[in-house]
Amino acid sequence: MARLPRLTVAGYPHHIIQRGNNRQAIFAATADYEVLLDMLLEHSKKEHVAIHAYVLMSNHFHLLATPDTVEGIPQVMQSVGRRYVRYFNQRQSRTGTLWEGRYKSTLIQAERYLLACMAYIDLNPVRAGLVSEPGLYPWSSYGMYAGRRPDRLVTPHPIYWEMGNTPFAREAAYQQLVQHGVSAEQQRVLTDSALRGWALGEPDYVADLQRRTERRITKARSGRPRKEI
């Protein structure tokens, strides 16, 4: 069955996942993480893509981003993907692909899922058993949102600004949100929607998105189409 074209809509947040081929490591040293972050910063600014959250894991990475144009995210991912593979292959004296095919992504309803997606992303290292709490992991957006360090790559979404009237209030609210965690069901729908490319949101949100694109954005019902009577 032919795969669906990737869904990208300007002005909406997108959850993006890029995996290493065959689950292989995509970072071999601290410098590799820094290089990928620098590339993401350069190309996201160039293509006018706001990155709200990220995490770089040993064999994959997540982004939560809103593009100003339909071409923004594809351009960023293509440019960064190609440049980083050249860099990594040269550094490791290797050849061939590094990525597990094209990146996966979907749109999420900001009002319903944005904060949950941010927490889901920042909690990846904890779920993987790499650290006991997200502030101990250096390669995610959590440090900035918790007020521990600046991060030029991150552009907070307007919904984050609504978490408090002062930086301290927002930081405390976000830390509490992450400490509360993400339910197993939220983890499932956030992961599955990105990997399968189905829009994630309430029915009215999905219906509005469908009017903006010819690409099918939800899973088709199984069985034969119903006949009109």
UniProtKB/TrEMBL annotation:
InterPro entries: Transposase_17, Transposase_17_sf. Residues 9-124 form the Transposase IS200-like domain. GO terms for biological process: DNA transposition. SMART domains: Y1_Tnp. GO terms for molecular function: DNA binding; transposase activity. It holds the Pfam family Y1_Tnp. This is Transposase.
